[in-house]
Every structure is written in C-alpha cells, then in structure tokens.
Amino acid sequence: MIKLEICCYSINCALVAQKAGADRIELSASPSEGGVTPSFGALQHALQSLSIPVHPIVRPRGGDFCYSNADFEVMKNDVARIRDMGFPGVVFGVLNEEGHIDLLRMRQLMSLSGNMKVTFHRAFDMCFNPHVALDQLTELGVQRILTSGQQLNAELGLPLLKELLQTSQGPIIMPGAGVRISNISKFLEIGITEVHSSAGKRIPSSMRYRKAGVTMSSDDSDIDEYAYYGVDEQLVESMKGMIGLVQGKK
Predict the structure, then answer these.
(1) According to the model, what pLDDT value does residue 218 have?
(2) Cα 172–194–103 angle (5° rounding)?
(3) Which domain holds residue 110?
(4) d(Cα 19, Cα 203) in Å, to the nearest integer?
(5) How many CB atoms lie within 10 A of CB 129?
(6) Residue 22 resides in a domain
(7) Angstrom distance (rounded) from CA 41 to CA 35
(8) How many domains does the chain have?
(9) pLDDT (tens digit, 9 = 90+) per residue, 71-106?
C-alpha cells in the first residue's frame, strides 16, 4: 500500500489532513523555518485527537543541521519525551561540520528513540555524499529517509531518488519537497511506496479588525499577519485519489 504523509504545522492542519485521508502526519511547527519541534501542548493534543500515526519532528532551530552541545541536549530531551508520551515514530537528523552524518550523535538519538520508527529528514539533502549517507543510515537502523534527491524540489531530484530506491537495503525512500497532484504520478511510476507533502495553502484570518502597519516579523514587513498556513483538504483528497488509481492498475 502506497502511503501519503502530510507535513502539518498545527493540530488543525493535522485534523484536516486526517479527514482528507492522509495515512500519517509529520507534526512540526514554524513553516517559515522548514519545521521545528512542536510544543508539548501540540504533542499532547495530537495523541488525544488523532487516530492515524503521528511522527513529531525534533529540530531545535531552523537553519542547518550541525548543532551546538546545547542544541543537542535539547534534542535528546525532546526525543525521550516524545518516546515516553507513546508516539509511534519520530523525525530527526544530525550532520557534522563536513556535511557527513554525525554518527556519534545519531547513535545516541537512535538509542533514546526506543521502539519508535525513525525518519531521517531532509538533513539528508545537505549531506556531502548521499550514497555513503544511505549506507550509514541503514547501519543505524533508520526506517525511512525524507529527501528531495538533494535538489531544490523532489521532481528535480528524481534521478537520485531512483538510484536510492534501487540501492537501499533498508530505509524507505520517501520523496518530499514540492510533491503535489501535478507531479505525484512521477514518483509513483518509479516504485516509490511513500510520499510526503505539505499540501499547503494560505488561510485568511477570521478577524474583522485589521491593525495596519504592524507586523510580528522583524525580517519582512510585507508578510501578511492576517493569513496563516494550513492544509488544503481537497488537495490531500486528490493526491489520495491519484494514489488509489495507481494502486488499482498494479
């Protein structure tokens, strides 16, 4: 069965994705930073309100994946907390200064993960050598790798994705970044069994009062504070429909 994982930045997003037929949720926060660790409140509510598997991301900050000692201590605490809360899976990735998998730190996080299924996220796309990284992640026991094929988006990364799919002796290769209804068939055609999409859209605020000239962002005064990121229910349904068509032909 081909699975559709939806990246969700809030519980509301996750509830929409679940209703639309998503098979699994990657739960995170802060879409502008590409996803960071969700709050304890969000984690707790996910367990209470969602029936499909939820895999929280553990990422202490935006930016690269080479972490300070303090960042790493936070990651260890978060992995242990997520494990103790009873989540079936977790998502993380750590690199060293040279762009290789940080094996020492990854072994520590894998040990702390217990029985949770581990996804190595798109830190893979910043690795110096993806083939060496695949071998190392296989040895570590990682269950899946979320990757764009080391390109700006997964469609551009199709050649490497195909290579990884053919050579992987363990981890599931899960394309992510720019996967949408217009191109999902391209991934399914090469034999991919899991795909990852944000299926996102901007949702206008329900507020009638709008304070002009005030922004919560210090970086970009053009950001619309009266809209926020959400999951497009119809897009998720369409992607599930496409997956069903492909499976029906097999």
Answers:
(1) 60
(2) 30
(3) 3-204+231-248
(4) 18
(5) 12
(6) yes
(7) 16
(8) 1
(9) 999 999 999 999 999 999 999 999 999 999 999 999
